[in-house]
Amino acid sequence: MCDQDHFEDDRKEFEARGLVTRKQFGVMLGAGMAMMLPRVANAVAVADAEVNVTTPDGTADCYFVHPSSGTAPGVLFWPDIFGLRLAMKQMGKRLAESGYSVLVVNPFYRQKKAPTAEKGGATPIAEVRPLMAALTETTHMTDAKAFIGWLDKQPSVAKNRKMGTQGYCMGGPIALRTAAAVPDRVGAVASFHGAALVTPAENSPHLQAAKTKAQFLILIADNDDKRSPKDKDVLKETFEHAKLSAEIEVYPGAAHGWCPPDSTVYNEAAAEKAWSRLLALYGKALA
What we know:
Elements: H1 3-16, H2 22-30, E1 46-55, E2 58-67, E3 74-78, H3 86-97, E4 101-105, H4 125-133, H5 137-152, E5 163-168, H6 171-181, E6 186-192, H7 205-209, E7 215-221, H8 222-227, H9 231-241, E8 246-251, H10 268-285
Parallel strand pairs: 3-4, 3-5, 5-6, 6-7, 7-8
Antiparallel strand pairs: 1-2, 2-4
């Protein structure tokens, strides 16, 4: 089968799952971003919508996707530096199909509505770095409280089960701070190639997270580990001292940014391993 046939099959699949229009798919192809995540086994039917969430600083445009019937544990999904875009929605929908009510946020709503990166994960970092630089510990915490509070008001979110939160790249430390911001609601935290999880400051994300009762999954890119080889040991020691469950692992051969399917360093094998560990964490901590 030729590549064009594959593209047409992918287009139909994206459209059927409500992830993209024909026109948007054409833009994806032009940007080299036509990638499909593996299908979910025994996927549940889901409903999704673009939503607006009020925060102390304004209105955040977000994507909410959840099982079509019943209730499910809530998950707050923090994107990487490229922000809310098709790839993040695709990942959020896949998680919802696995049985979770997922809010994928635009962390840059103060400056710009999504999509905030013209070429998704292939956007030059210099174009989006100013958006990340405008965020602070304060915005991390206030946004986390607002987003978790919004999730708790949704009929599809189980009130008798803890919530999860996950972050990619710059979203990693925000996910850790989410647990610190709402410790009574967050029971599981996952960081994928998170940046600056460990700092010398008293408000370092790893120190704030260690004061909670959540369970943690922290997966580190090979090249990030080479740049900061002591971070994994600091994380392990910190969580062990706090008597918190934490799976901390360096993924050999996986470069920073390996998880999102539109990343220029997407590593499907490593991403799928990471995804399986995420589901294991949520299955245990949010049961």
